[in-house]
Design goal:
Pfam family, one: APH
CATH class of the largest domain: Alpha Beta
CATH architecture of the largest domain: Alpha-Beta Complex
Strand content: 5-15%
Order of helices and strands: HEEEHEEEHHHHEEEEHHHHH
CATH topology of the largest domain: Aminoglycoside 3'-phosphotransferase, Chain: A, domain 2
CATH superfamily of the largest domain: Aminoglycoside phosphotransferase (APH), C-terminal lobe
Protein name: Phosphotransferase
Radius of gyration: 19 Å
Oligomer: single chain
Organism: Chenggangzhangella methanolivorans
Shape: globular
Largest sheet: 5 strands, antiparallel
Length: about 300
C-alpha cells in the first residue's frame, strides 16, 4: 500500500455514509508556486460504487495550523448560500464534498482579469458576507504576527525587509481598527485557484472552494485580497470595488489596498515557515513565500501607503 492509499483508507473509514469505494485518484497535485494548490491537504477524487464522485481533502499534519476550527461548517454554509460544492461528509482532518466534474476548472489569475468573471466572483463573496456570522474570528493581523513568531522560532531564512513588512501590517491593523470593522462571514482566501469556473450563462459560472481559513472578518479583506491577486492597475481595482459595492469611495479603496498587502505578507511568511517546517519534498513553499513578500514590498513601498493609512 502506498502512503496515499493508507491516508485515503483511513480517511474513508472515519467519514460516514460514503459507502463502498470502487477507486480513487489524485485530483490535484501539490503545487505551491505559482498556483498554490493542494499544499495543505491531499486532494483526491473518490469513486463510490453506488454514488456520484466525491472530492476528498485529507489535511497534512504539518499544516494543521492552516485550517480554521470552523472550516467544515463554513464549507457547508457556503454550499447553502449556493456558491460552493455541497458537503458530503466531514471528520477530523478530512472533508468530502461533491466533485465538480471536468466542465469545471480552477481559475488562473488571467481568468479573473476578465471583468465579468471577477464581478461574478465578487458577487459570490458578497453572498457569503450576507449570511450571519459563523462565530469564529479570523484575524489576518494576528496571523501575520503568529507566522512571524514561528519564523523566528524556526530560524527561517527571511528575505531582507520581512520584519519591516510585518511592522507595516501592525500599522495597518491599528489604523483599520481605529476606523472600525464590521464583521461578516468571509472566505478569507484570495487565491485564484480556489475559484472554480465553467462556461455557461452569466451568474452561474463561479463556485468558491477551500474554506480552510473561513471565519468572521472584515468583508473588505475578501475584496482586497481578491483584487490584489487579480488586478494590476488602479483603474481595475477601482472597477472591482465598484462591482462589489456599487461605488468606489476613497476610504474603501485605501482599506482594500492595505488588506492586499497584508494578505501578501501573510502568505509570504506562511510559505517560508512551511518550507522550513514541512518534511514533504518537492513543494516550492519557499519560492512562493518569497514571491508574495516581494509583491508586498512593492505595494508597501508605494507613495500612497501613508495616505491609505491616514484616510480610512
Amino acid at each position: 500500500m502506498t502512503g496515499l492509499e493508507e491516508r485515503v483508507g483511513a480517511a474513508v473509514a472515519r467519514l460516514p455514509g460514503l459507502g463502498e469505494i470502487a477507486g480513487f485518484e489524485l485530483a490535484a497535485a501539490p503545487v505551491a508556486s505559482p498556483t498554490h494548490r493542494a499544499t495543505v491537504s491531499d486532494c483526491v477524487r473518490l469513486d463510490p460504487r453506488d454514488a456520484s464522485p466525491v472530492f476528498l481533502k485529507i489535511r497534512h499534519a504539518d499544516c494543521a495550523a492552516d485550517v480554521s476550527p470552523v472550516a467544515a461548517e463554513a464549507a457547508a454554509r457556503a454550499a447553502e448560500a449556493g456558491v460552493a460544492p455541497n458537503v458530503v461528509a466531514t471528520a477530523e482532518g478530512a472533508l468530502a464534498t461533491e466533485f465538480l466534474a471536468p466542465l469545471w476548472r480552477y481559475a488562473r489569475v488571467g481568468d479573473l482579469q476578465d471583468v465579468e468573471l471577477l464581478s461574478e466572483t465578487l458577487a459570490a463573496k458578497r453572498r457569503l458576507h450576507a449570511a450571519s456570522p459563523i462565530g469564529w474570528r479570523f484575524d489576518p493581523f494576528e496571523r501575520v504576527r503568529a507566522l512571524a513568531a514561528e519564523a523566528a522560532a524556526l530560524g527561517a531564512p527571511l528575505p531582507d525587509g520581512a520584519a519591516e513588512m510585518a511592522a507595516a501590517c501592525d500599522l495597518a491593523g491599528a489604523a483599520i481598527a481605529a476606523a472600525g470593522v464590521d464583521l461578516a462571514f468571509c472566505h478569507n482566501d484570495g487565491v485564484a485557484s480556489n475559484v472554480m469556473l465553467r462556461d455557461g450563462p452569466a451568474g452561474d459560472r463561479v463556485r468558491l472552494v477551500d474554506f480552510d481559513l473561513a471565519g468572521d472578518n472584515d468583508p473588505w479583506f475578501d475584496v482586497g485580497a481578491l483584487i490584489n491577486e487579480a488586478c494590476r492597475f488602479e483603474a481595475e481595482r477601482r472597477a472591482a470595488i465598484e462591482a462589489y459595492a456599487g461605488a468606489c469611495v476613497e476610504r474603501i479603496y485605501n482599506r482594500c489596498r492595505l488588506y492586499g498587502a497584508v494578505d501578501d505578507v501573510m502568505w509570504g511568511l506562511w510559505g517560508i515557515v512551511r518550507a522550513v517546517g514541512s518534511k514533504r519534498p518537492g513543494i516550492e513553499f519557499y519560492k512562493y513565500g518569497t514571491w508574495r513578500l516581494s509583491h508586498a514590498r512593492a505595494t508597501l513601498g508605494e507613495r500612497g501607503f501613508e495616505e491609505w493609512l491616514r484616510r480610512l
